[in-house]
């Protein structure tokens, strides 16, 4: 069960990571290429290290799965899943749509998620069994809810990049052709827009656990649905193909098209 202390701690983790990210944002940081050719910077590494040190100090029995430094005690009942900068390509190109993702998975299922977009001063927090909240740039916080969208022809669809689909692009294209407004490049911020009722779908592929674990509780706590492409709930073993939807009807219609 997620406690109020867990929620507060997740917020402090995101605060620490965001502070480091902003220190380097729009500066001439060196960019390295990882084995999968994705970019990484001192900001990614420093932000994750700061969060890991906090967990080691305050929650030493909990596990960690992080993008930059891998797994520690990943078999623990409670595991913190960390993406210090989701949207590093946006970060290094000066776009403010990147964010820090923090999740607490309990017995393999994400139960708590934070999407923190430090460059624009916004944060979504989702907890299983509670309403998702959105903290605005002016510091006010409000409950949010997805919007109704009964048909794909009315939907706004996000994905970070069509390049992520590779040989699965035809499946994505079947959905894209049916929606009203396809949008690209929102990174984790786009999921917040679905939760807040400004977009209807976010479909992605090739993700790792740290890319989606924090997002699922945010979407679900706002009344939406987030699953894999087969319609199954997300957990630590999901295959990285995800669909987030505000309305169950558009979720079902998109799933059918993805399946061909």
Description:
- It is a single chain.
- With 260 residues, the protein is of the alpha+beta class.
- 32% of the residues lie in helices and 27% in strands.
- The chain is globular, with a radius of gyration of 17 Å.
- It has helices spanning 4-24, 42-58, 88-92, 169-176, 187-195, 209-212, 215-221, 248-259; strands spanning 31-33, 39-41, 63-66, 70-72, 78-86, 99-106, 109-117, 122-127, 133-135, 141-143, 156-159, 181-184, 201-204, 225-228, 242-245.
- Helix 1 (4-24) packs antiparallel against helix 2, helix 4 packs across helix 8 and helix 5 (187-195) packs parallel to helix 7.
What can be said about this structure in brief?
With 260 residues, this protein is of the alpha+beta class.
How many domains? The number is 2
List the strand order in the largest sheet.
4-3-5-6-7-8-9-10
Which descriptor suits the 3D outline?
Answer: globular
What's the main sheet like? 8 strands, mixed
Q: Output the number of helix runs.
A: 8
The tally of strands reads 15
CATH topology of the largest domain: Fructose-1,6-Bisphosphatase, Chain A, domain 1
CATH superfamily grouping of the largest domain: Fructose-1,6-Bisphosphatase, subunit A, domain 1
How much strand? 25-35%
Q: Level of helix content? A: 25-40%
The H/E string reads HEEHEEEHEEEEEEHEHEHHEEH
> Which spans have pLDDT < 50 for at least 5 consecutive residues?
none
**CATH architecture tag of the largest domain:** 2-Layer Sandwich
What structural category characterises the helix and strand content?
alpha+beta
The CATH first-level class of the largest domain comes to: Alpha Beta
Radius of gyration: 17 Å
What is the averaged pLDDT score? 96
**Span from first to last CA?**
38 Å
